[in-house]
Each structure stands twice: as C-alpha cells, then as structure tokens.
Description:
The chain is α+β, with helices and mostly antiparallel strands. Helix content is 25%, strand content 33%. Strand 10 (220-223) and strand 11 (229-231) form a beta hairpin.
Amino acid sequence: MTPLDKIRNFSIIAHIDHGKSTLADRLIQRTGGLSEREMSAQVLDNMEIEKERGITIKAQTVRLEWKGHILNLMDTPGHVDFAYEVSRSLAACEGALLVVDAAQGVEAQTLANVYQSIEHDHEIIPVINKIDLPSAEPEKVKAEIEEIIGLDASNAVLSSAKSGIGIEEILDAIVERIPAPKGDIDAPLKAMLVDSWYDPYLGVVILLRVIDGSIRKGQQVKFMAAGTTHLVDRVGAFRPKLENLPDLGPGEIGFITAQIKEVAQARVGDTLTDAKRPAAEPLEGFKEVQPVVFCGLFPVDAADFEKLRESISKLRLNDASFSFEMETSAALGFGFRCGFLGLLHLEIIQERLMREYDLDLITTAPSVVYQIELTHGGGHIDLHNPADMPEPNKIETISEPWIQAVIYVPDEYLGSILKLCQDRRGIQKNLTYVGGRAQATYELPLNEVVFDFYDRLKSLSKGYASFDYEQIGYREGDLVKMGILVNEEPVDALSMIVHRSTAETRGRGMVERLKELIPRHMFKIPIQAAIGGKVIARETISALRKDVTAKCYGGDATRKRKLLDKQKKGKAKMREYGSVSIPQEAFIAALRMGDDA
Ligand SMILES: Nc1nc2c(ncn2[C@@H]2O[C@H](COP(=O)(O)OP(=O)(O)OP(=O)(O)O)[C@@H](O)[C@H]2O)c(=O)[nH]1
C-alpha cells in the first residue's frame, strides 16, 4: 500500500494532435515502464480504431514511479458521447496536465474538459508542447492560456514530447504541484468504479479509485448500486504491463478482477464497499447511462445474420452502454435494433463490426425514442423505430426528448452558432460573456442534435466551440414520419421522424444528397421525400448509357479486368431496391444534414 503523501493522480487534457499520446508514452518511457523497442506503438490508445481515428475511446490508466512517488496517469476519452466516463475519470484525479501545442496555441476544443477539471478543483499544470518546431511561440501561447482559459501560465512547463525535452520537469511538477489524495485507511472500504472492460483471459477487469479503506485479494466486495457481491481474486495496476499487487489503499488507482462475466454488472460510477463492513453511503454521482440513439443494423448478405448476432454479442460483452434486440424489416430482412450513447458511438460500433468481424452492414436512419399516446385510450408506446410509427389517425400525441445544452464559443463565431441552434429549433435560455468567450444555454430537441450537431458546431467554430448537455425530459411536438422513395419504392431504412416545420428542408437535403450518392443506372431514377402520400421534395438521377470500360483506351487487358473487378466489388456492397442499387455509404451519408439545415 502506498502512503497517501506519495501518491499523485492526474489526467492529461489536450486538443486533438497537440501531443497527448506522445507525451504519455514519453512519461511511461522516462519512468521505466517500457523499453525503447516496446515504445514503437503508442501504448495508451490500444484499440485499432482508436489509433486510426486518433481518438481515445476507453479510459485507461498507467501507474508510474518517479522519485519515490507513485503517479497514476488517467487517460480520458475526448468526445461528448462519452461525457459521463470523462466525468468519472476526472473525479478520480487531483490534477491535470493541460497540453497545448506551441505553434497552434489554445484550440478550445477541449475547453469543456478544462472546465470540468476546474470544477473538480484540480490543480492544472500548463504544458506547452512541440517547442522544437520552428514556428513555436511559447510566450504567445502562455498569454492565450491566461486570456482564454484564465489560468496562470507563468510557470508552464515547456516540452517537446517528440524529442524528449521537458519530460523530467513535467514529472517533477506533478510531484510538487498536484496535491496528494486524501482518504481514511481505517474507514470501511469505499472505491469508485472508474471503468470496466472485458479481457479474454481475466474476464471483466474493473478499474477503480480507492477513496477510503483498502481492497485486497480474497475480500468480499459489494457493488452498492448493482447490489451484487463478488469475491476479489486479483488486485493490481498497469505499468503499463499488468502487475499484481497485494492490496490498494486510499488514494490509489488500480484494477481488480472478481469473476464477473459481463461488463453490464460493473457499471461506471458504482461504489464498491466491503460486504462484511459496508460504508453507510455510496459515493455521489452514480448515473446509469442509457442509450439515446437507436438504429437498425442489417447484414448486406442475409446469410451473415448469425455472424452478426455473434459479433454484436461479443462487442456487448465489452460495452455495457450499447443495447440490441432483434428486428425484422420488409426490405432488409433480419437484423438488430441497437441503442448507442450518440452518433460517434454508433459509428465506432458499426466500424468495429465491419472491420474486426468483417461484416458488410446497412445502417438505418438513427432515431431517438419517441413517446406516443394512442387515441381512444389505446395506450402508450415508446417508439424506437420510425418504421413502427402508427397511422397518424391513431396518434393522440407524440413527444420527443429535449436536452439543455451549454455551449462555450469565442465571440467571433457566436453568430453562426446561434443560427445553428435556431435552425435546430433551439430555445435560447441564457447568454453570457466571460473574457472574450460567450456561454450560450439552449434547450434543443435531442432529435436535432444526434445527427451532426457536434460536427457542425466544431466546423462552424474552427474547433473552438465546446458543448455539453443533459436530458431534460419529453415535450409534445408536431412530428411526422418522412419517407424516402427511390424509383417509386419506399426505402424504409431511410425513413425518419421529423418536425413538420423542418420536414421540407430535411427532405430536400436528403434527396439532393442521395442524388449524389446513388450511382447512375441505365434508366432514370426519381428520388422523392414524402409525408404520407404527399411528395415534399424530388430529384431525378438521369440515365446512364456508357460502358465503364470504354474509357480504357488501347485495350489494356489487365487494366480493364481491374476496373471490372472493382465494379464487381462495389456491387457486393450495394443493396438492391427494386431495380436500383444503393451503395452502403449512402445510408449514413444521406443522413448528414450538411449546410442546408
Ligand atoms: N514536432 C513535434 N511533434 C510532436 C510533438 N509531440 C507530438 N508530436 C506529433 O504530433 C502529432 C500528434 O501527436 P499525438 O501524441 O498523437 O497527439 P494526441 O493529442 O494524442 O492526438 P489525439 O490522440 O488525436 O488526441 C504526431 O504526429 C506526433 O508525432 C513534439 O513535441 N514536437
């Protein structure tokens, strides 16, 4: 057990590409966790997709040793879909490194994390990274940190994670400036569950931060929210390699295993206590995260259904925040209705299914959950799927979930952000200014936010705006089902529920994008958006009369074959609608609202 005054717990806050992963790797290397050779791959982002997309999905932690101290580095995901996991990771720390690129300066994308960190009373150490770059302007960046964020940057550490400059200074600053955790070794065990994941060898691994008391192998522990009791069979930490420890005391961060089969039994934010001598109260802040966005996932090839079932079940073992149940569709056959924390979460799961499990999938239009009261006391339904929408004359009322969003944005981008909120049926609740930045509070229908609001917000503000939200309940709305017809045939995977006031804009945007996304055929293809029997937007794809190989001059046979092969491959990923083939990408791409909404 490590004495409290020898422990420091911290996270790293950084804008994308400012060097968080490189710096984390350097800290691990300098403190002896890994050899140069083992450093070749970035260690913290250990999932393939995380690496490719350059984002951190699952919180991870590494235990470092520096001058007689234990430093626990907590990695945090950087997307609003995973806001709850971030909040729990931050709650497990006493400080943070704020990494800012010396050439780019403060790009406020992670402002929300900085403010959360400040809210948790963290000691924040500014680190100005990439000072090796000729374009580095550390003094200017210091001034920006003070102006935009309001932090004292006079003692910021200058570093180059790439060339290994400033690494020791950072480690020293963590020991000197970040406060040691507090805790009572004699009190009953109280530990916060920070993260959990499934490991094929160990079963469910639980990452935790001990607040009071201690945890050791052989102890019976109780999960206070779940109400279950488990026998701890392993205690340890990651350095970053797994290392077993006899116990973990107050202030320490580490992992346990306890013969738990599914991550669903180990929810982030739950409190672990001793089963025989339980704590009186659980820790504050436990929240059951619920999926908010639903969509159907169908195999392109119907024969892949069983494979899809197996793959989804495997992914679910590792991710309790996503849900699935079987669904059948007239056009798409057998598939699953799945629930996600947001659109990025959806895309990650979809990509993992396609890449790790080699499945070709069709994703239907994402939807939130609507509440419908039926006429004549017909009861109540929670609508997860636009395809199940009852006939309009059977609906008494339909309600949709609303959120309250808080947006931080520099003044210069405020105008376009306010317009975006307005276009998405937002109701402004508050607008204040703090040091050149505006803080806008809006109530918005979740339906208008789940598709691409976050991406739009980022692009309109060049990445400066940050955004956080909470659900505030259901409100009645004038909502209708908009169907899409391709060559006169309804494509139920693209039907969606929209507000009547935005139906036309959304319908027009959708048919225009589909016109770009669906390849030309040998005949004319009308594309229509309709509400009930009424067409609200229409585009036509003109007929094609060209042989694709015609442009291969000179009869180069290999080139010709390649082109035909490519065409064949493309075909495999298309879905036939009547006589029209729709490429798989079109399904998701068509749902992005783009600039027109
Ligand atoms: N010149 C220079 N380049 C650096 C330095 N630190 C990181 N880089 C480079 O900057 C790029 C981004 O670094 P990462 O460590 O992946 O950045 P990150 O903040 O973890 O990015 P995300 O994982 O996307 O959030 C990489 O190409 C690094 O090699 C530095 O000190 N100097």
